Amino acid sequence: MVTLGMMCHVPTVTTTLVLKTWMNVTLVLISVTSIPFARTPWVHTNARVMLGTQEMENLAMAFEIQLILHVRPSLLSDPSVDISVCCVTINKKRSSPFSPDIDECSTNSHSCDVNAVCSNTVGSYACACKAGFIGDGFTCTDIDECASGTHNCHSSLASCTNTMGSFSCSCNNPSSGDGRTCNLPSECQNYGSLNNADRKITYGRPNNYCDSGIGPGWFRFEGSAGTRMPTSYPPTYRCNTDATGWLNGGHPTVADGQVSRTVCFHWSGNCCYWSTNIKVRNCGSYYVYYLSDTPYGCYLLCCGTN
Predict the structure, then answer these.
(1) Gyration radius of the chain's alpha carbons
(2) Which of 76, 121, 136, 199 is deepest in the core (most CB within 10 A)?
(3) How many Cβ atoms sit within 10 Å of the Cβ of residue 168?
(4) Residue 148 carries which DSSP code?
(5) pLDDT tens for residues 52-87?
(6) Torsion angle defined by CA atoms of residues 36, 42, 48 and 49, in that order, rounded to the nearest 10 degrees
(7) 230/61 Cα distance (integer angstroms)
(8) Among residues 164, 138, 161, 139, which one has the least CA distance to residue 151?
């Protein structure tokens, strides 16, 4: 049976259509009869063929056939009217005894996203987004693991970089490792703490201390003592000492690694009356200093500041 909108009764016509699959195998010979066409101008119409006979039942369940028919108006009154079949589209609904299953995945005839996995099923296929993507399989969007916090980079010593479908981790200087496990240099983990308030450059000299006998070892300024050594000379009689120590040469960057510097001691109008060589490391958020005995004994002391 053929169904059309805007139908009226006209002479019946008969045509024969041989349908073929994309595998070029003939499926069935169908006779289309008694086709009532749409009213004037009768140039062309769309018809949907519904196969309802018992012998065509399985085929009807498996396929939907769309015909675009063109009719010559001048021949409409002729029972042998010519029907030109211009286009036949066969849409597969499900597998049937008349057609083997088509693997849409292996033939690349599916609609899965490029970032999805296609899985063939009987008569159809399924799409699922790959790991690192989210969506329905037909549209997949990259997951930004760095922004969402779903990565496993080191929480404080590494940086996360998003990539398409994944991410990468890299340890921040001066730490080293694979980005998921990062370790600071030993001097950034094993150091002595210089945290007394009387070591700060704003403190006077009520007791007169010195760094004679300090170290040798790595030390960090923190707490009430400040966060680093001053890089310009403080006045004498500060930091609870006579000759005040300061770092000559400036602090290194993280990329500089471990560097050698000079500590000068301000005394008797000379900003570098005494001096000693030390090592310094920038640990990212703080500095550590390799200190040893002062060059003169008492009263010389390394000061702290913020």
Answers:
(1) 44
(2) 199
(3) 15
(4) H
(5) 344 344 444 444 444 334 444 544 455 554 444 333
(6) 50
(7) 87
(8) 161
